Amino acid sequence: FTFALITNLNAYELNxxxxxxxxxxKTMEKAPVxxxxxxIKVEIKENKDLEEFLKSAKVTIKTASFDSKNEYRDNNIxxxxxxxxxSEQIIASISxxxxxxxxxxxxxxxxxxxxxxxxxxxILNDLIYAKGKIDILDYNMKNSFLAFAKKCASYHENKSYxxxxxxxxxxxxx
Length: 174
What we know:
By secondary structure, this protein is α+β, with helices and mostly antiparallel strands. It has helices at residues 2-7, 50-55, 71-78, 142-151; strands spanning 13-14, 19-26, 31-37, 40-43, 58-62, 66-67, 89-98, 103-110, 113-124, 127-135, 163-173.
């Protein structure tokens, strides 16, 4: 009880850059390919309550800033998956937080489709780390995904997956 009281005396506030990681999969062995985005904007309000602090976060990601550390791969993805005007940005916020269970719901909008993404989170060394999974096809991106899979067929041994693991790390001070 004393620990909770002490941590709530000071407000939570952003203390660095929000980091986002995605991991897609290719080949029959389901080989992982990871990366991030270079253009990530975050707005978050200082709050004494961890739940309210997290729920105040609003994130906008420019999909053209897709970064897998491979320019050729980046171009293949941005020219197919994110080629539509409706998929120029990804918008995210946290709609629900259960601090006790270390669970949250990420409200994710991509290609004008919004879905709640359940995520698990942990707090380590002034960093809130969360992980979940999405399926590109849940965002009305079937044609874009098929174009991507076709364009990358020879590199993916004719096997691309629509599920993507997503993670974020939010540095804070309290």
